[in-house]
Amino acid sequence: DDVYCVWRGAFDEETNICSYGMDLFQRSGDAWKRSFEEHQEYAYSQQQLEGFLKSAGFTHIRVYADRSFAAPAEGEQRIYFSARKGKRK
Asked: CA 65, CA 73: separation in Å to the nearest integer?
């Protein structure tokens, strides 16, 4: 009840950068205090990320769906990776 957030975002398909800003309002007595955050995230394909991991020496690369141990489906919003680097003791 004492915090309000306005979120706006845009994705640039040429640069694969998602930019988003948040205006945060927090009640302070009878007034509202405003603060602002701006973020940028880079979007990479699954193949690019797997290539980065292999180039860095990772093996046993596994890919999972968002919050699941299932394989990611087409159009998945987020995917998770597990990988191993170095010798196992």
From this structure: 7
